[in-house]
Amino acid sequence: MARTVWDSSVGKKTVMAVSGLIMLLYLVAHMIGNLKIYFGAEEFNRYAHWLRTVGEPFMHYEWTLWLIRVVLVVAVVAHAVSAYQLSRRDIKARPDKYVHKKPRASYATRTMRWGGVILGLFIVWHILDLTTGTVHPGGFQEGRPYQNVLDTFSTWYGNVIYIVAMLALGLHIRHGFWSAAQTLGAGSRTRDRALKTVANILALLLTAGFIAVPVGVMTGVVS
Amino acid sequence: MKLTLRVWRQKNADADGAMSTYEVDGISSDMSFLEMLDTLNEELILKGEDPVAFDHDCREGICGACSLVINGEAHGPERTTTCQLHMRSFKDGDTIDIEPWRASAFPVIKDLVVDRSALDRIIQAGGYITAPTGAAPEAHATPVPKPDADFAFEHAECIGCGACVAACPNGAAMLFTSAKVNHLNVLPQGAPERETRVLDMVAQMDDEGFGGCTLTGECATACPKGIPLVSITSMNKEWLRAARKAAKR
Ligand code: HEM
Ligand code: SF4
Ligand code: FES
Question: Which stretches make up the 4Fe-4S ferredoxin-type domain (chain B) (predicted)?
Fold first, then answer.
């Protein structure tokens, strides 16, 4: 089955859909968690600590977190590799452009590839910034995420990178969620409007929810 | 009407092509697009020039032979085949760009004629049933629920013209393949090969060098027979079902 799926353009698209939905699920949880920044340093840092103790005593300290990280890394890699391979195939299948150009599909549809690349770069920067602290502005403090978030969003470039990436995320999900439903065979004529509405709501909610954090820091509501 | 035509001219598969400009006069708005090209070709022949090669056969919108990307749109501005497109869709003095279907799986043979046999090979991979042939069987012998019959018929309307491939930014043949798969897979006559059909036809589609679906919907907009985008969703569902079943065997 794995061979059949990976060797087929339809199968590889399924890999994209499933990995995309896994990441989407994670992002909903991540966004809700981030909003705790509005309730002060104590609550936010306690939440971050709890993430490391989930599942205890069955799980050891940080085991659950690492499990989630492994699943996410697999999802990101599978998604990006399939996207790269499918895109190469698509470009090769249509080498000659028409002389007479006509207006193309919607913005969200056209930006899936570049939007995806932006998201990939963002994920790397984001981890180096707030997880490992490698490129963090100011002294990165392990276990003090509230202060770290404040530091990042006190720089202009931190805000710009973050907000651009979240707008790209919104567009990606807008086309991606509906696409995944079609890829997995869950779409239908009667369900089409509902799926598009859910895609728009998810895109809007995630973009607004994530951007609320830098906006909070910039306006001084979070300090 | 007087028109300026910019037509893709290419001597043969290996030659480089380019757009050439021609003026045609005395075009009636009742002429079909192909009759307009016939007029141009008569003039070219009288002048001793090579006429423009283009595909056509029935000129009734049923065979799928005609093609042409007209002003950037497969089969032109109306939702019909090029042979059923009439010159009333254009205005006196218009400049019209005429290009061949573009896809690496559809190499240009000459001018506006492309080789679409890749679609035939997708059909050969599974677009048939293995029921015994002979005299037509009694129609009521195999009952088919009305919704299934309608679904099959809607997809059976595909004439294999390839406009979906030409319109797709990825040169994908997903709409064509899904029309053929869905047509047979929903019927009892197609049931014995339900799984192999979709797996083999999709595999052949990949082998021919068609692209994949990014759900831009350009194919369904271009399709002269109104095959809907959701056909691709139905085929994806059939494919996943078949892949799961094949894994269990
Ligand atoms: C590593 C960074 C990423 C890259 C390079 C990338 C790239 C792509 C590309 C090229 C497509 C296909 C577009 C199309 O077929 O029209 C796609 C689809 C999709 N992406 Fe991403 N993406 C990335 C990150 C994400 C993230 C973080 C999510 C989580 C929400 C996501 C969710 C989706 C979904 C649900 C689809 C639809 C799959 C389908 O069409 O069946 N992607 N992505
Ligand atoms: S699906 Fe439509 S556009 Fe594609 S080959 Fe069939 S009739 Fe032509
Ligand atoms: S010539 Fe037969 S469909 Fe146009």
Answer: 149-178
User: Are A143 and A49 within 8 A, CB to CB?
Assistant: yes
Using the Cβ of A18 and the Cβ atoms of chain B, whether some distance falls under 8 Å is answered with no
Alpha carbons B28 and B40: distance in angstroms, whole number: 13
Give the CATH superfamily of B3-110: Beta-grasp domain (3.10.20.30)
Return d(Cα A217, Cα A70) in angstroms, integer: 31
At A163, the amino acid letter reads: I
Which residues of chain A neighbour B105 with C-beta distances below 8 Å? 93
Task: Grade residue A105 by pLDDT with cuts at 50, 70 and 90.
Answer: low
A10: chain B residues, CB-CB within 8 Å: 202, 212-213, 235-236, 239
Ligand 3 closest atom vs CA B81: 4
> Which residues of chain B fall below pLDDT 50?
none
Domain ranges of chain A: 2-94+107-219
pLDDT value at residue B136: 81
* The domain over range A2-94+107-219 is classified in CATH as 3.40.50.1110: no
Q: Report the pLDDT averaged over residues A97-113.
A: 83
Buried b vs exposed e over B45-65: b needs ≥16 C-beta within 10 Å? eeeeeeebbbbbeebebebbb
Query: Where do the CATH 1.10.1060.10 domains begin and end in chain B?
Result: 116-129+142-248
Confirm if B55 and B100 have CB atoms less than 8 A apart.
no
Query: Which CATH number describes the domain made up of B116-129+142-248?
Result: 1.10.1060.10
Interface predicted TM-score (ipTM) of this complex, two decimals: 0.93
Query: Cβ A93–B215 below 8 Å, yes or no?
Result: no
Task: Give the CA count within 13 Å in the CB-facing half-sphere of B40.
Answer: 25
For residue A139, CA distances in Å to A125, A135, B13 come to: 17, 10, 65
By the CB < 8 Å criterion, does A193 face chain B?
Answer: no
Atom 2 of ligand 1 has which residue's CA nearest to it?
A: A120
Residues of A in contact with B199 (CB under 8 A): 4
User: A49-68 pLDDT, tens per residue?
Assistant: 999 999 999 999 999 999 99
What is the model's pTM? 0.94
All CATH 3.10.20.30 domain ranges in chain B, comma separated: 3-110
* Ligand 2: lining residues by beta carbon, under 6 Å: B 158-164, 175-176, 179, 222-225, 227
DSSP A154: T
CA angle A66, A68, A73 (to 5 degrees): 90
Cis peptide before A57 (omega within 30 of 0): yes
Q: In this predicted structure, what is the pLDDT of residue B215?
A: 94
Chain A residue at shortest CA distance from B166: A94
CB contact under 8 A, A90 and B202: no
